[in-house]
């Protein structure tokens, strides 16, 4: 008999979305000096959630100036132990307002509430908690104790508040002040974070949030008054930033795209490997720079793995992000959905075989069924380009050396996965993979104590861990 | 209780209210038992006046406390570093809420002005925060990957030593926190012989620990005569390390160290510690064992 | 034809301890962390309103209402049987449970009480709970229970033999017990709390299925930990893979430690999302439990009235 789960929607009543939002500069919300407001949309319903200011050059000037003042007068000279206390406060307030933040994140981003509730927001709090503890211990980290000054930070839409935490927590712990631009399509939790800074009595100007689109971001990172640029996003924009800072004294860290190989050997724990494949590519609708988007499976077990994978994919629950039983939510924007569709179309044109999980997609909103392509080779575009969606390309290999060769045969180098019950093979493979994070018998695991970042065109610099402080200290 | 509190009992127009006094007991396994010996001793204020009776712990209380500490070790050392850090930070939060009470208690014992006592309390709170931050970092500073000359993965990381016996310094609160926090943040459990002269803030601190999500038995606190109980702690075969911070007499320290040698306890000798200064990593590193793991790399 | 495949495979492995060992060690490993995370994620499923009502009724129908105490008496068992047939006297719509599970000496009492009710009589046997007795004694135990009218037999495997690697001996014992059962259904208790690793659980599951078990069951209830979600997940994966391979479907029974309706619903979710609806049936899934039933009844009452119920309003038998 079929077990149909009744809808189990998380209550929206914990969030209070204002019709319009200004910029957060020097400790207060202010209207933008110039520029039309932009709309942020619920990707699951296409409903407009709020109008958000777009910061122009004059606004960015104000924000950078406020950050500079706060750096010179207050934050840069404050004892580390006091900075620590502010960050601990922020961590605690995030914990206290966790449900509100989770619901808001799911509404604005489209990710399932199970993930925003159990992954994103707890990690945000943990990240602030972790870096709070470093603020008075910088001398032990080995990167000096002198901050850089004002940090310009631009973050993506896939993990809006978590990426904010990855940027702001280490910057503040090291004594820098920040101007942060959230992504155009997901500004709302950053604006609640501004309120949290107010609740924590964080001195004005230490954190400034300027909303806007690509132009705002460009203005910010190219601003002469910033000492440091930190960017997470596409490799293309990362390359532009790297060009634009050439010849300046700005320090830069970039966390960019990926096309991670998830390598399954024939002796893997198959049921858990299948879970890992699913988690690797369908977590957060595949909007993950380190997603395991290329499955490399040993030919001798390929059929069995694919059978199990398809059976498992058929149980994925796609739909309302606020339903507590949803596994795969909405694609974040119409633009992203179009890009996924285009690349999936190219996959078919190039002769790969497409299989999508049987699921009924809602009529309104942006949706894409979990999909795998088999018969993919290294020559296919879907094996080389980052799709940034719930689309998995399946390739096979015969020997461990071939697996490593294929895994490394990409301009990217952010992450990789290894599935085998043999410990020495894990370490052998990990040593050879040219990637910043290697997961063995697990995937998409994150922790504030663990450094994250890429090799090659996946960017440079690390976020998280002791190493994450390096980006914000003068050495 | 302290003179201060008696004054506070009076308001101008109301009749004098008789204060309800607190019974100070031991703190063992998360509970507050009296000494099994049934003994107590009077605690005097700086002016020589009576403050309260404190429990006078016996060797059997030491035995019970060590048993409680051992029982708690598996869970506490197995908790995630993040969890231990959160709990230490929670202790700071709870202590902050009782600043005034601690300042009164410290001042009553030392006779210093309230402002000075308050600064001691504040430093004690900040010390918890300092160590809370170390919970998920000391392994990143004390541990490392080792580039051995061969096809091996090789990683060293610190692990807690086990049950640590602590003879707490004579000074109240800050000194006590400064020896307890570095031992427990890494996952050790402790048996503390509190300052004989200033046991009251120590027991009140135990009340804070008991309400901060710290599992019972992680910190066990005995009041009384360290001269009487410390040898039992030093000689106990199920204690793995000993902090002699509060042993003033050099001869006694040497004797305790000799007893500790029997099962090769790690010993921190008494030193002229400045409890106000930033503590560094010394005390934390004293009670961890480095473990190195080798594993081949090969297909 | 498909069940022939199960027999063919069993026959192929039965003769040779080496072949059996090689087969069992060739099963894919289970990664403990991954399996537990999967179970924990499924435990977050939120089952509400109509789905909850449906699940509660199904869970009641899956209960093997159990009493296995040295102090059991005919009076105790009669009361339990009454409860089994009519769990909630206040609600005629409440279904009966699947079976009553007792020691062999009390089977006649249960059979007499339950005659014609459709509630099965299960008996533990084979030197329950340790399994440490000569095979002849264990078989007599089984025959006595079946002769007294038990139509389901819950046997324990010899964990000592299993842990010592004497798989073939365990296999032969199960085969012998199955034969002694005649038409009675055989549930094979693995005692997963003593097998400890999930790799062992998977191997023991296959061993029991190859030897002819109709059900595989987690625990006696006398050893902690008893049933857990991840252990049941591994066993469900085993029955799923076994049916894929041989065509024969085997049931699963977690027992011990399942006390709340919330727990029970988590198991139903586990079935639903790992082996699917074929196992969402009392013929293929049972809960070995006692106090669980009253919590299911209380939750049913809450669904019906909209108010929280109290334990005083449900019978204690």
From TrEMBL, chain A:
Keyword Lipid metabolism set for record: no
Domain of life: Bacteria
One Gene Ontology MF term: oxidoreductase activity, acting on the aldehyde or oxo group of donors, NAD or NADP as acceptor
Active site: 255
InterPro entries, per the entry: Ald_DH/histidinol_DH, Ald_DH_C, Ald_DH_CS_GLU, Ald_DH_N, Aldehyde_DH_dom
Keywords annotated in UniProt: Oxidoreductase
KW Oxidoreductase (keyword) present: yes
Domain Aldehyde dehydrogenase, first and last residues per copy: 33-473
PANTHER family reported in the protein's UniProt record: ALDEHYDE DEHYDROGENASE-RELATED (PTHR11699)
Recorded family membership: Belongs to the aldehyde dehydrogenase family.
Name of the protein in its database record: Aldehyde dehydrogenase
The species this protein was found in: Actinocatenispora rupis
Automatic annotation (TrEMBL), chain B:
InterPro entries from the UniProt entry: Ald_DH/histidinol_DH (IPR016161), Ald_DH_N (IPR016162), Aldehyde_DH_dom (IPR015590)
Single GO molecular function: oxidoreductase activity
Aldehyde dehydrogenase domain boundaries: 45-268
Keywords: Oxidoreductase
Pfam families: Aldedh
Protein name, entry field: Aldehyde dehydrogenase
Phylogenetic lineage: Bacteria, Bacillati, Actinomycetota, Actinomycetes, Micromonosporales
TrEMBL record, chain C:
The organism's place on the tree of life at top rank: Bacteria
GO CC term, one of those recorded: cytoplasm
Pathway annotation: Carbohydrate degradation; 2-deoxy-D-ribose 1-phosphate degradation; D-glyceraldehyde 3-phosphate and acetaldehyde from 2-deoxy-alpha-D-ribose 1-phosphate: step 2/2
Record keywords, A-Z: Lyase, Schiff base
Entry-linked InterPro entries: Aldolase_TIM (IPR013785), DeoC (IPR011343), DeoC/FbaB/LacD_aldolase (IPR002915)
Family affiliation: Belongs to the DeoC/FbaB aldolase family. DeoC type 2 subfamily.
Keyword Protein transport appears in the UniProt entry: no
GO biological process, alphabetically ordered: carbohydrate catabolic process; deoxyribonucleotide catabolic process
GO molecular function: deoxyribose-phosphate aldolase activity
Catalyzed chemical reaction(s): 2-deoxy-D-ribose 5-phosphate = D-glyceraldehyde 3-phosphate + acetaldehyde
Organism: Actinocatenispora rupis
Pfam families referenced in this protein's UniProt entry, alphabetically: DeoC
Keyword check for Lyase: yes
Entry protein name: Deoxyribose-phosphate aldolase
E.C. designation(s): 4.1.2.4
């Amino acid at each position: 008999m079929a077990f149909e789960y009744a809808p189990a929607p998380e209550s929206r009543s914990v969030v209070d979305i204002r019709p319009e939002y200004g910029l957060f500069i020097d400790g207060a919300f202010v209207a933008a000096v110039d520029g039309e407001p932009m709309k942020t949309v619920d990707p699951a319903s296409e409903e407009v959630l709020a109008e958000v200011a777009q910061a122009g050059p004059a606004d960015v000037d104000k924000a950078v100036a406020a950050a500079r003042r706060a750096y010179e007068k207050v934050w840069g000279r404050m004892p580390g132990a006091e900075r620590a206390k502010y960050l601990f406060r922020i961590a605690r307030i995030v914990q206290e307002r966790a449900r509100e933040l989770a619901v808001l994140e799911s509404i604005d981003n489209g990710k399932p509430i199970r993930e925003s509730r159990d992954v994103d927001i707890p990690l945000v709090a943990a990240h602030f908690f972790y870096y709070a503890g470093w603020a008075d211990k910088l001398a032990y980290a080995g990167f000096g104790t002198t901050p850089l000054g004002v940090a310009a930070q631009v973050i993506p839409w896939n993990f809006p508040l978590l990426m904010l935490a990855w940027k702001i927590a280490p910057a503040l712990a090291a004594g820098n002040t920040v101007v942060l631009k959230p992504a155009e399509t997901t500004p709302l939790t950053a604006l609640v974070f501004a309120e949290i800074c107010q609740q924590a009595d964080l001195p004005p100007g230490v954190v400034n949030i300027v909303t806007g689109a690509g132009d705002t971001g460009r203005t910010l990172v190219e601003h002469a008054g910033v000492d440091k640029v930190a960017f997470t996003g596409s490799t293309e924009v990362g390359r532009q930033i790297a060009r634009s800072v050439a010849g300046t004294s700005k320090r830069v860290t970039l966390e960019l795209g990926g096309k991670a190989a998830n390598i399954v050997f024939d002796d893997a724990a198959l049921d858990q490997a299948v879970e890992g494949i699913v988690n690797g590519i369908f977590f957060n609708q595949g909007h993950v720079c380190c997603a395991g988007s290329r499955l490399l499976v040993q030919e001798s077990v390929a059929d069995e793995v694919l059978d199990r994978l398809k059976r498992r994919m058929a149980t994925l629950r796609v739909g309302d992000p606020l339903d507590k039983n949803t596994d795969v939510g909405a694609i974040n924007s119409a633009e992203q959905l179009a890009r996924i569709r285009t690349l999936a179309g190219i996959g078919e044109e190039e002769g790969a075989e497409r299989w999508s999980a049987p699921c009924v997609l809602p009529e309104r909103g942006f949706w894409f069924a979990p999909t795998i392509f088999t018969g993919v080779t290294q020559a296919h575009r879907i094996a080389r380009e980052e799709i940034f969606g719930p689309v998995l390309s399946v390739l096979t290999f015969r020997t461990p050396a071939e697996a490593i060769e294929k895994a490394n045969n990409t301009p990217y180098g952010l992450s990789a996965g290894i599935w085998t019950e043999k410990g020495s093979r894990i370490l052998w493979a990990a040593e050879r993979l040219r990637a910043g994070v290697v997961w063995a018998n697990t995937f998409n695991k994150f922790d504030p104590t663990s450094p994250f970042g890429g090799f090659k065109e996946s960017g440079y610099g690390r976020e998280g861990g002791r190493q994450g402080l390096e980006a914000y200290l003068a050495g | 209780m302290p003179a201060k509190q008696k004054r506070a009992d009076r308001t101008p127009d109301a009749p004098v209210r008789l204060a309800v006094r607190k019974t100070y007991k031991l703190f063992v396994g998360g509970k507050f038992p009296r000494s099994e010996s049934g003994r107590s001793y009077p605690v005097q204020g700086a002016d020589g006046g009576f403050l309260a009776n404190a429990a006078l712990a016996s060797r059997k209380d030491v035995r019970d406390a060590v048993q409680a500490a051992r029982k708690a070790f598996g869970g506490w050392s197995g908790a995630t570093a993040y969890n231990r850090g959160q709990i230490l930070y929670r202790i700071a939060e709870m202590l902050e809420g009782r600043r005034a009470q601690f300042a009164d208690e410290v001042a009553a014992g030392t006779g210093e002005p309230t402002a000075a006592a308050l600064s001691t309390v504040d430093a004690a709170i900040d010390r918890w925060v300092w160590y809370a931050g170390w919970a998920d970092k000391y392994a990143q500073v004390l541990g490392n990957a080792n580039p051995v000359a061969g096809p091996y993965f090789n990683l060293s990381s610190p692990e807690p030593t086990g049950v640590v016996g602590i003879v707490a310094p004579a000074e109240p609160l800050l000194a006590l926190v400064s020896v307890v926090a570095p031992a427990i943040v890494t996952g050790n459990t402790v048996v503390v012989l509190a300052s004989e002269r200033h046991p009251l803030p120590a027991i009140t601190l135990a009340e804070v620990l008991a309400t901060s999500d710290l599992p019972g038995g992680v910190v066990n606190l005995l009041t009384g005569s360290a001269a009487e109980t410390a040898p039992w702690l030093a000689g106990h075969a199920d204690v793995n390390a000993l902090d002699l911070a509060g042993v003033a007499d050099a001869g006694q320290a040497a004797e305790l160290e000799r007893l500790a040698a029997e099962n090769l306890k790690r010993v921190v000798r008494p030193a002229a510690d400045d409890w106000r200064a930033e503590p560094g990593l010394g005390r934390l590193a004293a009670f961890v064992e480095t473990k190195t793991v080798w594993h081949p790399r090969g297909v | 034809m498909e069940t022939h495949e199960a027999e063919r495979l069993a026959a192929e492995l039965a003769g040779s301890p080496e072949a059996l060992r090689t087969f069992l060690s060739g099963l894919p490993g289970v990664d403990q962390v991954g399996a537990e995370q999967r179970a924990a994620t499924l435990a977050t499923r939120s089952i509400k309103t109509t789905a909850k009502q449906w699940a509660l009724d199904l869970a009641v129908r899956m209960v093997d209402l159990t009493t296995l105490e040295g102090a059991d008496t005919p009076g105790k068992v009669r009361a339990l049987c009454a409860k089994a047939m009519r769990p909630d006297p206040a609600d005629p719509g409440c279904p009966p449970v699947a079976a009553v599970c007792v020691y062999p000496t009390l089977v006649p009492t249960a059979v007499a009480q339950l005659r014609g009710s459709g509630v099965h009589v299960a008996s533990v046997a084979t030197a329950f709970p340790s399994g440490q007795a000569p095979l002849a004694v264990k078989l007599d135990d089984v025959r006595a229970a079946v002769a007294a009218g038990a139509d389901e037999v819950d046997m324990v495997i010899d964990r000592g033999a299993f842990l010592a690697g004497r798989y073939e001996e365990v296999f032969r014992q199960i085969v012998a017990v199955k034969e002694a059962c005649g038409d009675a259904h055989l549930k094979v208790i693995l005692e997963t709390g003593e097998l400890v690793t999930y790799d062992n659980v998977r191997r023991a599951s296959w061993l029991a299925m190859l030897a002819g078990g109709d059900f595989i069951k987690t625990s006696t209830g006398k050893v902690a930990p008893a049933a857990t979600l991840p252990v049941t997940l591994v066993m469900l994966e085993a029955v799923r893979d076994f049916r894929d391979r041989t065509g024969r479907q085997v049931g699963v029974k977690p027992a011990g430690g399942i006390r709340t309706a919330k727990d029970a619903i988590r198991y139903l979710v586990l079935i639903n999302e790992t082996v699917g609806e074929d196992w969402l049936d009392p013929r293929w899934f049972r809960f070995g439990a006692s106090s669980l039933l009253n919590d299911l009844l209380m939750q049913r009452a809450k669904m019906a009235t909209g108010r929280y119920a109290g334990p005083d309003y449900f019978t204690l038998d």
